[in-house]
Design brief:
This protein has 177 residues and is α+β, with helices and mostly antiparallel strands. The protein starts with a helix and ends with a strand.
Length: 177
């Protein structure tokens, strides 16, 4: 009888040890799953925030290009006649003849030099590329500036101005290089 009691106590101790081991494995598994879940969510949130930041920067590039075409005169204002994009005297491009009225000569010159690396640096495009379509309200295209390369468009912006006393639509698309 004493042997049976001792044997029974030892058996119960082994079961307690096994239960503690099973509890430890289950607890550790739950903890690791929780860590994995948190990691996946953090990575997902970081990716989403990076995408939002890219879009915000792309919108800023589009706004800057619209302003360059429709509102800015450039500095110096006669840049289209005298200066090359690499010239240090050229501080800013602008194709406006007056506010929201585009100068045809400046627009033609801007179109000629847009793909130049110096031009893109002075326009502060950075890691982005953009194209511009300028057309009359009836859809007749006046100018296409840029070179679209089938990348994912991050933003489209549209604005209105005057060209040769006619209302026009200025469309800008921006994508990442």
């Amino acid at each position: 009888m004493a042997k049976t009691l001792v044997y029974s106590l030892i058996k119960q101790e082994n079961k307690k040890g096994q239960m503690q081991l099973v509890d430890l494995i289950v607890s550790l598994s739950i903890f690791l799953l929780l860590i994995l879940f948190l990691y996946i969510n953090i990575e997902k949130n970081i990716f989403q925030e990076k995408e939002k930041l890219k879009k915000i920067k792309a919108i800023a590039v589009a706004d800057r290009l619209i302003k360059t075409i429709a509102e800015d005169y450039g500095y110096p204002t006669n840049w289209a006649i005298e200066l090359e994009p690499s010239n240090n005297s050229l501080k800013a491009f602008g194709t406006a003849e007056s506010y929201l009225e585009i100068d045809p000569y400046k627009l033609a010159r801007f179109n000629q030099i847009y793909l130049n690396n110096y031009t893109k640096k002075k326009l502060l495009l950075g890691e982005y590329e953009a194209d511009l379509t300028i057309s009359y309200l009836n859809g007749t295209q006046i100018a296409y500036i840029g070179n679209y390369s089938s990348q994912k468009i991050l933003t489209n912006k549209k604005s209105y101005a005057l060209y040769l006393n006619q209302p026009i639509i200025l469309k800008v698309r921006v994508w990442q290089k």
